[in-house]
Write a structure and sequence with these properties.
Radius of gyration: 22 Å
Order of helices and strands: HHEHHEEEEEHHEHHEHEEEEEHHHEHEH
Strand content: 15-25%
Number of strands: 15
Oligomer: single chain
Number of helices: 14
Helix content: 40-55%
Largest sheet: 5 strands, mixed
């Protein structure tokens, strides 16, 4: 299926269409900074007050902006703040994980409006597409006509080269071979009638953190997402860097020392899969790690040692990443309970302080804010960016 054909499937779905550059600019500034008056938007963007006012009125008519209550200053007329209208646009994200699939509906403000989840021992194309079909039908069946008319697209977040992961997931090579020839983009376009884009799942998680989380606070940083396996992303000059093959931040292959000093791939030391193995060795059902809502408190005897091992590995990976890219921060998130994530980041920061960083400026270790939904949210925000925002915010979008 050609890209043009996929695009043609969206005819009549999005009545607003692709925004002009200056419209995207104003929407992006408001997305980054919240409600702002026309005068403040003009100052930040360099557009004239008259041009800014004309665009704001158009965006308001299109249903993309909300007009706030006038704010009276010390002098002059009251200013009127504008902010993104959550109902202005929606998108769908499909997170294809190694243990579960999620289907989310995201609004323009970054809030998840609807969500469905399917768990499995390992992913296969047929069941995943069946889940997409039934899930999309269920979600759109609950939408109003206006909401469904404002769907901007479907983003799919999935690990690259899934067919190479059969051994670590305990599946047969035959089950995973189907991924080599699976046309997920084409099949998803046929199912949904939406424009579809597929991205690496860890890159999608990084984008979610960058757009909606703590990533707003840093210009350059490395991002680790601890899921069933570990992945990551790189942000340079306020933009997610995808790389030549859209696989930048594939940190699972990074060699780091374990606590005994032996070099190991990061994926073997800092993944929830290694915690699963601890539970399986103790005769426990590892699937409970993925149940929602997540609660690992009764597994502390196994979780505690895993946190220590993972924290040491992430600290070592942070040093290695800093030797290549002069980042100001390392952001750590993952598909785990918030309390476990906080412990992990605090312990990793403590471990980092004791490591050899001669010749380096050690980065700040920061806790991510999005959590287990990061990959689905990151997948869903892609179509919104494509139609309404600028993907390279640069200094215009920093807090003044």
């Amino acid at each position: 299926m050609t890209l043009d054909h996929v695009r043609s499937l969206s005819g009549g779905i999005n009545q607003i269409g692709v925004r002009a550059y200056n419209e995207r600019l104003l929407l992006s500034v408001m997305q980054r900074n919240g409600g702002l008056s026309g005068g403040e938007l003009a100052r930040r963007t360099g557009l004239s007050p008259q041009t800014t006012s004309v665009i704001l009125r158009k965006l308001e008519r299109d249903g993309l902006l909300l007009r706030g209550k006038p704010v009276k200053g010390k002098v002059g007329k009251p200013s009127v703040p504008f902010s993104l209208h959550p109902d202005g646009a929606f998108s769908v994200g499909l997170k294809l994980g190694r243990r579960s699939a999620d289907l989310v509906v995201l609004d323009l403000a970054g809030q998840v409006r609807q969500q469905l989840r399917e768990t499995y021992d390992y992913p296969r194309p047929g069941p995943v597409l069946t889940f997409l079909q039934s899930g999309f039908d269920a979600l759109t069946g609950e939408m109003s006509h206006d909401m469904s008319a404002r769907l901007s697209g479907l983003g799919i977040a999935a690990p690259f080269e899934l067919w190479n992961w059969h051994e670590v997931l305990g599946a047969s090579a035959d089950d995973f071979a189907a991924w080599k020839d699976a046309d997920m983009v084409g099949a998803a376009a046929e199912i949904t009638g939406l424009p579809v884009r597929m991205v690496n799942d860890a890159t999608a998680a990084c984008r979610a953190e960058h757009i909606f989380g703590i990533g707003r606070e840093y210009r350059d940083y490395v991002y680790f997402f601890v899921g069933a396996f570990i992945g990551g992303g790189i942000v340079l000059d306020h933009a997610v860097f995808e790389g030549n093959q859209q696989n930048a931040g594939a940190f699972g292959s990074l060699m780091v020392p374990d606590r005994a000093g032996r070099a190991c791939p990061l994926i073997d030391l800092a993944s929830i899969r290694s915690l699963e193995k601890r539970l399986e060795a103790a005769g426990l059902d590892a699937r409970q790690l993925w149940e929602a809502p997540q609660d690992w408190s009764h597994l502390e005897a196994h979780v505690g040692p895993w946190v220590e091992e993972t924290a040491h590995a992430l600290a070592a990976a942070s040093v290695a990443a800093s030797a290549v890219i002069d980042v100001e921060a390392v952001v750590i998130d993952g598909g785990m309970p918030e309390g476990i994530r906080s412990r992990l980041v605090a312990l990793a920061a403590e471990q980092l302080r004791g490591m050899d960083t001669r010749g380096l400026i050690a980065p700040v270790l920061a806790e991510g804010q999005i959590g287990g939904n990061a990959r689905g949210i990151g997948a869903a925000v892609g179509p919104i960016i494509n139609q309404y925002l600028l993907d390279r915010p640069a200094t215009l979008f920093e807090q003044a």
